[in-house]
Amino acid sequence: MARARVVPGGEGRRGVLTALDWVLVVAIVVLAAFVVGGMLLGARALRHLKKTDAQGSGQAVDDALAKVDDANAKAASVRAEAAAAKAEANAARAEARRVLEDAHSEADTILERAHRQAEADAEQVRSAARRSGEREVALLNATAKEQAAEVERRAARIDERERLHAEEVERLVERERRLAGMDTDLSSREAALSTKEAELAGAEEEKRRELERVAALTAEAARAELVESIEAQAKREAAIIVRDIEAEAKSTADTRARHIVVDAIQRIASEQTSESVVSVLHLPSDEMKGRIIGREGRNIRAFESVTGVNLIIDDTPEAVLLSCFDPVRREVGRLTLEKLVLDGRIHPHRIEEVFESAKNEVDVLCDRAAEDALVDVGITDLHPELKKLLGRLRYRTSYGQNVLKHLVETAHIAGIMAAELGLDVPTMKRAAFLHDIGKALTHEVEGSHALIGADLARKYGESEDVVHAIEAHHNEVPPQTIEAVLTQAADACSGGRPGARRESLEAYVKRLERIEEIAASKVGVEKVFAMQAGREIRVMVRPDDVDDIGAAVLARDVAKQIEEELTYPGQIRVTVVRESRVTELAR
Fold first, then answer.
1. Bridge-partner residues for 528, per DSSP?
2. Which residues are within 8 A (CB) of 318 and not within 5 positions of it... i.e. 6 or more apart?
3. Between β-strands 397-398 and 525-531, what pairing exists: parallel, antiparallel or unpaired?
4. Sheet of 278-282, strand order
5. Are 393 and 248 in contact (CB under 8 A)?
6. For a disulfide at 477, which of 336, 472, 485, 567, Cβ 3.0-4.6 Å?
7. Of the candidates 327, 323, 277, which has an alpha carbon nearest to the alpha carbon of residue 303?
8. Are 373 and 421 in contact (CB under 8 A)?
9. Mean pLDDT across the stretch 431-458?
10. Residue among 420, 401, 176 at smallest CA distance from 276
C-alpha cells in the first residue's frame, strides 16, 4: 500500500513548532511563578521583621538578611532553571526540525520504492494475464479442432450408414423379386400336385376294388384280420419301446440330477461332530468326586433334582459322566457342574444359584447359534419363537449329525439346486432350513417331527409352500410341490453323504436283511446281494422265468417296495442281472 507523502512546511511543521513554543511558555510561566513566590516571601519577611523589631533589632536584621539572601539564591536558581529550560526548548526545537526532515526523506524513499513495487506488480499481472489468454486461446483452438474432427467422423458414419441402407434396400428388392418368383413356382407345383393326388386317389380306389375282388374280403374285414394278427407283436414292441424310453429318461434324469447334486455338494461343506446322550466332564483331581457327592450324597441328589441330569461317578480317573436324553438340559447340567468345580463351593444352595446362571448362559448360546445360522443362510424375518427353537437344535443330533448344522447345509444345497432349476431361491432355502424344526419339540409334543414342524411353521406365519415342504419331507403327506421334492432331495444329500451320519450296528444289519428279503420274495429271483453298505442291491434272476421286460418290471417293483417300507439315508440302486448260459460238450 502506498503511503501519503508529507510536504515540508505544511501543517505538520506548524504543529511541531507550536508544541515547542508551548513548552517555552510553560517554562517562562514557571520561572515567573518562582520569582513572584520569592518576592512574596521577601515581603512576608519584612513584615515579620517590623513586628519583631521590639524583641531585638540585631537578630531580626540578621534573620531578614539571611532570608533575603535565601530569596535571592532561590531567584538565581529559578533564573538558572529558566535559562536551562529555554536551552532545552531550543535543543528540542532543533531536534524536532531534524526528525521532521528525516521523516520527509524517509517518506520520499518509501514512496519511490512503493512506486517501483507497484510498477513491478503491474508488470507481473500483465504477464500472467497475457499467458492465461494465450493458454485459453490454445485450448479454444484445440477444442475447435476436436469438434471439427468429430463432425467429420459423424459425417463419415452417416455416409457409411446411408451406403449400408442403400445396399440393404437393394437386397430387399432382390429378395422380393426372388419371393415373387418362388410364389409363382409354388403355385404351379401346387397345381401339379393336386393333379397327381387326384390321379393317385383314383388308382388307389381301383387297386382296393381289385384286391377286394381277388381276396373276396372287404377292406374292413381285412383290416380287422391284420390288426388281430399283429396285436401281440405290437404289444411286445410297445413294451420294448416303453422300456427303451424309460431307460433313456432315467439315464438323462440321473445325469442331470447327478450334475446338480455333485455341484451342490462341491460348493457346500460343513463340519460334523459326533455327539451322544452322555457328556464327560474332566476333574482336576479324584478328590473332587467326594465333594461332588457331598455328605451322605446330598450334593449329588440336589444336583440331579435341580438339573434333571443323571450324574454318573465311576472308576474313571478324574472324570464324571452326565447322562440325559435332552441335549439342552444335559449342556446346562455340564456347565453347572463345571462352574461348581472351578468355584470349589459345592452345596445345595450354591447348586441352585449356579444352575440359574448356566441356564441363562445356555439360552444366550442357543440364541447366538440361531442368529449365526440365520445369517449364514440369509434369512432375516424369522419369528422370534422359531428362532428360539432353532437355537435348541444346536445341542440336538441325528445319527451323530448336528441338526442345526444339518439344516444350514440342507438350506445351502436346496438353494443351489433351486438356482440351477430357475426357482425361487429364498423360499427354497427357507423350506429346507425349517424342515426339521419339529425335532426341537419331539419329546415334548406327540407326533412325527415333520407334522409338528409344519404345525409350528403354520402357527408362526410361514407360507403354505414352506409348510407343505416341511410336512412332506418324510412322506407323511404326499409331496405336491417342487419345493417339497427339492427339500427331500436336499435332506437326502446332507444326511446321505459319507461321514455325515452314523447308525447303530443292529439297525444297519436289520436294514440290510430287510432289503434282501424284499428282493428275494419276488418270483423268479435266484440270489440277492446287498452291496456298498446297503446302497446297492444286486438281484440275480433265473433267465427261463424272467425275460428282459420282466427284469425291468422286477427292478421297479423292488425299488418301490423298499421306498414304501424302509427309512434310509440317500438312495438305493436296484440292479437286476439276467444271464443265459448254454453249455454243449464236444465229443
1. 539
2. 282, 283, 284, 285, 286
3. unpaired
4. 278-282, 319-323, 310-312
5. no
6. 472
7. 323
8. no
9. 80
10. 401
pLDDT: is 519 or 31 the higher one?
A: 519
- Amino acid of residue 514: R
Domain finish residue from 146, 181, 216: 216
What cell numbers appear for 199 in the block?
390321379
281: left (phi over 0), alpha (psi -120 to 50) or beta: beta
- What's the distance, CA 517 to chain centroid? 52
Q: H helices within 378-504, ranges in order?
A: 384-392, 403-421, 425-433, 449-459, 464-471, 482-496
Does some domain include residue 302?
no
pLDDT attached to residue 300 = 83
Whole-angstrom distance, CA of residue 130 vs CA of residue 65:
95
Residues 128 and 195 in one domain: yes
pLDDT at 448: 78
Q: Are 429 and 373 in contact (CB under 8 A)?
A: no
In the predicted model, is pLDDT for residue 250 greater than 80? no
Q: Determine the Cα–Cα distance for residues 46 and 64; give it in Å rounded to an integer.
A: 7
Q: What is the pLDDT of residues 387-416, one digit of tens each?
A: 888 887 877 777 667 788 888 888 888 888
Task: Give the structural domain span for 392.
Answer: 365-496
Q: 130 is written with which cell numbers?
A: 497475457
For residue 13, the model assigns a pLDDT of 41
Q: How far apart (Å, rounded) are the C-alpha atoms in residues 450 and 440?
A: 11
Residue 6: DSSP 8-state: P
Residues 112 and 172 in one domain: yes
In a domain? residue 118: yes
Provide the domain count of the chain: 3
Task: Collapse the DSSP code of 320 into the 3-class scheme (helix H, G, I; strand E, B; otherwise coil) and give the result.
Answer: strand
For the chain, how many residues are written?
587
End-to-end, the C-alpha distance of the chain in Å comes to 139
Q: Name the percent of the chain in helix, strand, coil, to the closest 5.
A: 75, 5, 20
Section 36-44 average pLDDT = 75
Q: Quick one: cell of 459?
A: 402357527
Q: State the residue for C-alpha cell 439346486.
A: 417
Contact by Cβ (8 Å): 298, 439: no
476 and 555 housed in the same domain: no
Interval 103-126: pLDDT, tens: 788 878 888 888 888 888 888 888
Per-residue pLDDT, averaged over 285-308, amounts to: 82
How many of the other CB atoms lie within 10 Å of CB of 148? 10
Residue 465 lies in a domain: yes
Rounded CA separation 573/555 (Å): 9
Confidence of residue 9 (pLDDT cuts 50, 70, 90): very low
Cβ neighbour number for residue 333 with a 10 Å cutoff: 28
Q: How much is the average pLDDT of 284-313?
A: 82
Residue at 67 is within a domain = no
- Final residue belonging to a domain, choices 185, 200, 216: 216
Give the closest residue to 551 by CA, choosing from 580, 581, 521, 524: 524
Same domain, 175 and 129: yes
Strands 278-282 and 319-323 come out as antiparallel
Is-contact 369 391, C-beta < 8 A?
yes
Residue 415: give its domain's CATH number.
Answer: 1.10.3210.10
Look up residue 496 and give its amino acid.
G
